[in-house]
Amino acid sequence: MERLLIFALVGLAAQAVDGSLGMAYGVTSSTLLVATGVAPAVASASVHLAEVGTTLASGFSHWKLGNVDWKVVAKIAIPGGIGAFAGATVLSGLSTESATPWVAGLLLLLGLYIIARFVFGKPPVFIPGRRPGLGLLAPLGLFGGFIDATGGGGWGPVTTPTLISSGTLHPRKVIGSVSTAEFVTTVAASVGFLLGLGGEALDWRVIAGLLAGGVIAAPLAAYLVKHLSLPLLGGLVGSIILITNGRTLLQSFDAESVPAYGVLFAIAAVVVVVAVRNVRSKDAAASEPETEPANL
């Protein structure tokens, strides 16, 4: 029961992050699972099986709120499913020893991407009346699905920022459409893992905990988007991913040392400080009263 509660809290935290950033459920939950000793393939499989429920709930919510562009969903979901199935098949065939540094390195890169996007990145410019075409959506879905399955997460970090930065679709529609399409990639990855690993290799307490926590947190997404600072949340999440996966890589290559850990924590501290300053600068700019021009 205690273990189930821990995984439920992991799912709750991951879905809260995903609801705020439009990404990072898989990255956050996979990072925490691998850090607790769960094998990379099992962690990714568990996350994707749990996401079948959370993405369905998320997609339904976005559809009800009018956040879904179904033409975009159709063009990105099918390639995403193909890529996810292929990624799950590849990861299922790797040994735990060889998969651990690969997954940790991939998650580390995704964590750095989240930091760069939400802490140091500039807000994208949206051009109304445009929609991304198949030439962008098909390869993006294929790549995002493959990375998502092999890394235990990555669909959101790959697809959401790319589509938002393209300026071809409103950010609200991007998050809603990507979240809805993720249901297809999640089902495809889950099928791939079940065929490659078999149900006996999975810990259903992990899956049940992640699913329960994620479903509970899903309705809180709107509140988090409205009230939490994205730069600060992105900085905190990215820092956690950086530290946990950096530790895994150091252990994998027998390179653990006090200076190495000091570098990891120093980088994380800098990221958080920059995020806090960004939030304070934004709040200060918003609180400055507008000055009216003097009457001549």
TrEMBL record:
Q: Membrane topology type, per the record?
A: Multi-pass membrane protein
Keyword Metal-binding tagged:
no
The record's section on InterPro entries has: TM_pro_TauE-like, TSUP/Inactive_protease-like
> Mind listing the UniProt keywords for this protein, alphabetically?
Cell membrane, Membrane, Transmembrane, Transmembrane helix
Transmembrane segments annotated in the record for this chain? 32-60, 72-94, 100-120, 132-155, 175-197, 204-225, 258-276
UniProt keyword Manganese present: no
Listed under GO cellular component are: plasma membrane
Q: What is its main location?
A: membrane
Pfam families under this entry? Answer: TauE
Where it sits in the cell: the answer is: Cell membrane; Membrane
Regarding protein family, the annotation reads: Belongs to the 4-toluene sulfonate uptake permease (TSUP) (TC 2.A.102) family.
Q: Which PANTHER family match?
A: MEMBRANE TRANSPORTER PROTEIN MJ0441-RELATED, MEMBRANE TRANSPORTER PROTEIN YTNM-RELATED
Name the UniProt record assigns to this protein: Probable membrane transporter protein
